[in-house]
């Protein structure tokens, strides 16, 4: 078992590395074209529509932390590119849902394949144990962040993070 001092030093180094990664993600231009001519926001929107199935604009807005009018404009831009289309909501015939087109699915699969390939390249020289540990640690940080932001209720035995940045 590592000494407490070493755990503290490792926690500091992890905090610095994770903070750097988050800053890069947080402060990049969400509207600048990144992959396949899509903005980061458009990529996230397309991914949500594909993973969640046909979704209403309000669901997309909630997922991306946008107001409904911005989400609607986002859907319009994806629709003009032929990546999504509006369909009748199967649960409520009066409502409209957003669904990916075959071209949207193909674009998403190319983007995902590229990003997974990058992850493969960056982690290929690590042991299975280290890769699995990194995955688990990132999931823990994601869960803690969801709790800190009030997006997820804490589980009974989990560390309770402060509600701050």
Question: Notable features of this structure?
Answer:
single chain; 165 residues; mainly alpha; Arc Repressor Mutant, subunit A; two-stranded antiparallel sheet; 61% helix; 9% strand; MarR family transcriptional regulator; HTH_MarR-typ; DNA-binding transcription factor activity; WH-like_DNA-bd_sf
Order of helices and strands: HEEHHHEEHH
Number of strands: 4
Question: What can be said about the biggest beta sheet?
Answer: 2 strands, antiparallel
Strand order of the largest sheet: 1-2
Helix content: 55-70%
CATH class of the domain at 31-101: Mainly Alpha
Q: Classify the secondary structure makeup into a structural class.
A: mainly alpha
Number of helices: 6
Q: Strand content of the residues, in percent?
A: 5-15%
- Mean pLDDT across the residues is 87
InterPro entries: HTH_MarR-typ, MarR/SlyA-like, WH-like_DNA-bd_sf, WH_DNA-bd_sf
Protein name: MarR family transcriptional regulator
GO molecular function: DNA-binding transcription factor activity
Summarize the structure in words.
61% of the residues lie in helices and 9% in strands. The chain is mostly helical and 165 residues long. It has a two-stranded antiparallel sheet with strand order 1-2. A two-stranded antiparallel sheet has the order 3-4. Helix 3 packs across helix 4. It is globular, with a radius of gyration of 19 Å. It starts with a helix and ends in a 17-residue tail after the last helix.
């Amino acid at each position: 078992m590592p000494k407490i001092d070493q755990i503290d030093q490792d926690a500091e180094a992890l905090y610095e590395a994770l903070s750097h990664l988050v800053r890069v993600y947080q402060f990049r231009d969400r509207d600048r074209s990144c992959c396949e001519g899509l903005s980061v926001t458009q990529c996230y929107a397309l991914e949500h529509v594909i993973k969640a199935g046909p979704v209403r604009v309000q669901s997309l807005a909630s997922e991306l932390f946008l107001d409904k009018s911005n989400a609607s404009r986002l859907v319009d831009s994806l629709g003009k590119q032929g990546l999504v289309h509006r369909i009748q909501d199967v649960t409520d015939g009066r409502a409209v849902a957003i669904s990916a087109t075959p071209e949207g699915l193909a674009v998403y699969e190319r983007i995902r394949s590229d990003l997974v390939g990058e992850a493969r390249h960056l982690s290929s020289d690590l042991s299975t144990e280290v890769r699995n540990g990194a995955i688990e640690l990132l999931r823990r940080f994601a869960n803690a962040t969801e709790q800190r932001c009030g997006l997820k209720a804490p589980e009974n035995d989990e560390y309770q993070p402060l509600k701050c940045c």
